[in-house]
Amino acid sequence: MTWPDSVGILAVEVYIPNTYVSHQELETYDNVSTGKYTIGLGQTGMGFCSDAEDICSLSLTAVHGLMEKHNIAYSDIGHLQVGTETLQDKSKAVKTVLMELFVKHGNSDIEGVDCLNACYGGTAALFNAINWVESSSWDGRYAIVVAADIAVYASGAARPTGGAGAVAMLIGANAVLTLERGLRHTHMDHVYDFYKPDMNSEYPRVNGKLSIECFLRSLDITYKGYKMKAARKEGKDKVDSSHFDYLTFHSPYCKLVQKSFARVFYQDYISSDKVIDHLEPYRHIQSDYLNRDLEKAFIAHSKDSFERMTTPSLLIPRNVGNMYTATLYSCIVSLFVSKSPEEIVNTRIGAFSYGSGLASSFFSFKVSPELERVRRFCSSLSNIPSFLESRTKVSPEHFERLMKERELTHHLPNRTPSFEVDKLGNGTYYIVEVDSQHRRQYARTSFLESHPRSHDKDRLLQSDCAPHYCPHM
Hints:
The protein contains 13 helices and 17 strands. It has helices spanning about 25-30, 55-70, 95-105, 120-135, 210-235, 255-270, 290-310, 315-320, 325-340, 340-345, 370-380, 385-390, 395-410; strands spanning about 10-15, 20, 45-50, 75-85, 115, 140-150, 165-170, 175-190, 195, 205, 245-250, 350-355, 360-365, 390-395, 430-435, 440-445, 470. It is globular, with a radius of gyration of 22 Å. The model is unreliable at about 450-473 (pLDDT under 50).
């Protein structure tokens, strides 16, 4: 079998919890300086989950929404992988819970399980799914990749960098977003910059300074490696950031994205013959990742390009926060929400994925040159801005109470969530109860269609919109 053409992302569904807390209000509540979170982190709002939601409910909501919105037959899925670092069980994969959606439609022949390494798991799952489509194992069906996480931190300085959400992606040939073959570079290493050794706690242990150094060093290595491969493939001496129309990055917080973009321009500068007097003092200090003067100089140098190439990708991260594995893909979705189809058709999108510990890759997507397909893709995501505006804002005091309740109960058996189900959005899965054996039962809130369905002729309508109860063992 020959490789199918243009393998990548055909459709996307994003699930964001219906509740959020304002970073501006958190600044006041935490008694920190004005702008510490809104300017220093570059954040506006942080989405979060109550005790009624968990990693499986988030993933169920995203996958069911993807299937429903795009009229995909459940029998047409042959591969499903989940990237997450939110461990609910040390043995049972989130993917197996998602199988309840497929088995009841007669399809249990679906390969793939979960991928784990901090925020990189979604990218690992994406690469695995695309490799499956391009391999001798492919049977002609679609793959689905789910990137989902609940990012929570102990009360203190790190708590405002949390978030929650899920992105489900339909993978196949003749994609709207094609992963460019042969154009990715990976860097992995062994470090303890961020890790979760306490299996009874959702909270990580974080070395913030080390994590930023590892993030930027990995960006340097993977970006330089990508540029070498792109130059070789295109028969050029070298390529630089002008190779891309847009650049997206994993976004723990949006200010780090701006620093990362500046780092790309720094790498371009030191690999060129250009001489700009006020930038020359920084040419030979590239291993100093925390040099504030270098950082400021190249943020200023790259500011206009950043606004054009990357700021449009920050809509969801700025308003929802860090969704760990889902964050990079929420950035890519944000591009299609923020830009018109005419502005994004036939463009190249660079992507940097990072997961602590560490695993990282720099790669790229090519957007389809077919304007009508890009229009449909954009249209399917057009409800996101209005949804972000319609979410329920929770006071910092209420947020802290909900986080404390989650901390005390998330791992316990024999419990029924206290959060009111009617405050969840339409079509949202939630926990009904956790029994004495830690087995969870889920149900779905009623579904009211608020977006246009896909009417592609090559897809079948296979919807089950009625509310239903799903016991999982």
